[in-house]
Amino acid sequence: MIDKAFVDFVIRDYTKPMGVATYKTSKDMSAELIEALPDIDDLKKLLDTEEIEEECLLEIYGG
Q: Where are the alpha helices (DSSP H) in the chain?
């Protein structure tokens, strides 16, 4: 399962080249996959919440 910690690990070093070999748009996805994905507004709320939590932790523990 991919979560924020995994993504942070993968993109932690922006000085190295990164590429995408293939990608699919929503037009290429099956209906089952599209239904399994969260609504875009819910995803934005989740990401905003995690960003706020991270900022709070940095204030508490420094960083």
A: 4-10, 31-36, 40-61
Q: Is residue 53 part of a domain?
A: yes
State the residue range of the domain holding 51.
Answer: 38-63
From first to last of the 63 residues of the chain, give the pLDDT tens digit.
Answer: 567 777 777 667 667 766 767 777 878 888 898 888 888 888 888 777 777 777 777 777 875
Whole-angstrom CA distances from 23 to 27, 28, 29, 46, 60 are 11, 9, 10, 23, 39
On whether residue 42 sits in a domain, the answer given is yes
Amino acid at 49: T
